[in-house]
From TrEMBL:
Top-level division of the source organism's lineage: Bacteria
Protein name per Swiss-Prot or TrEMBL: Type II secretion system core protein G
GO BP annotations, alphabetical order: protein secretion by the type II secretion system
Lineage: Bacteria, Pseudomonadati, Planctomycetota, Planctomycetia, Pirellulales
Membrane topology reported for the UniProt record: Single-pass membrane protein
Amino acid sequence: MKSRRSLTQNRTRNGFTLIEVLLVLIILVIIGALASRVFIGTQDRASIKAATSNLSIVSGAINEYRLEMNKYPSKLADLWEKPSDQAMAEKWGSKYLEKMKPDPWGNEYQYLAEGKKNSDKYDLWSNGPDGKSGTEDDIGNWE
């Protein structure tokens, strides 16, 4: 009888062992790490595409300004602020662009009317994810 009773107890055992719980936790951590890498890469690519798109829009406004004013703006604010000089104010059609929001990383877009990378026109760029100008991750209107 005793052996029959111990067989019944073994078959009706409830719960999980510590090893089983740890194994499941390890598997979940590995899956979570893999999934987070995929999503982090997607966010980075989306931010870069957003910055590139914004640069294209601003470039269009700068080129329109140049056509009407016969020069590139000296600063980006010239695209939304009417000039105080009367002669320039008469040429100025209207806002070429609404006041710019920061880039996807929260930094201001950079602009040089006399470009260093584009010597024949202007340089327009985002400092990129690291927020520092002149590094490899800068996103600009140059090749």
